[in-house]
Amino acid sequence: MIQEINQGNAEQLHIRAEEVDLDELQRPEFKNILEDLKDTFDSIKNSTHGLSMNQIWKYSDRPFRVFIAWKPEQDKPEVFINPRGVGSGGTIRNDEGCTSFQKKGTKKKGRHKNYTIVYIREDGSEASFKVGPPWSRVLQHEMDHLDGKTLF
Ligand SMILES: [Zn+2]
To answer: How far is the CA of 149 from the centre of ligand 1 (A)?
Structure first.
């Protein structure tokens, strides 16, 4: 189900998301909220590159540490569960925007040029890859969301 995207001052945007216990992956509650994330991303995929659980979370407990984003050379978006990443190759400043701050437009933000990410897929398997711009920026933006950090 498409969820409204949390905006600006919403508390969920400013708290650190919680690691997913891998037993959760088979639970209906987890699958439902993952479907919501996918449906919501699908509804805005022409105007954004990624969406974090913090941005659609409507509950009082902590969001799951999950985001969805495009992956290069893949025709459907990838789900990143419990992602960890490390940057390399220096810093690039470029325009960046956020669907949770739609009225603010874009701003220049410095990000690592390259980013290596390790994560769990929906099926519970581990995956990793390294990307350069523009995907490296998208991944770093979504990682910030999971840490409760916002662009504005
Ligand atoms: Zn954002």
So the answer is: 9
Distance 138 CA to ligand 1 centre (A): 9
Query: How would you class 1 by CB atoms within 10 Å of its CB: exposed for 0-12, middle for 13-18, buried for 19 or more?
Result: exposed
CATH code matching the domain that covers 11-146, chosen among 3.50.30.10, 1.10.10.10, 2.30.110.10, 3.90.45.10: 3.90.45.10
Q: How many CB atoms lie within 10 A of CB 39?
A: 13
pLDDT at residue 73 in the model? 86
pTM value is: 0.97
Distance 45 CA to ligand 1 centre (A): 13
- In the structure, ligand 1 is a single-atom ion and the residues with CB under 5 Å from it are 98
Q: What is the pLDDT of residue 99?
A: 97
For ligand 1, the distance from its centroid to the CA atom of residue 140, given in whole angstroms, is 10
Residue 47: CB atoms within 10 Å? 9
Q: From ligand 1's centre to the CA of 99, what distance in Å?
A: 6
Q: Looking at residue 72, what is its pLDDT?
A: 87
What is the block-wise mean pLDDT of the chain (152 residues), using blocks of 10 residues? 96 97 95 97 94 96 96 92 98 97 96 98 96 97 98 96
Question: What is the 90 CA–ligand 1 centroid distance (Å)?
Answer: 22
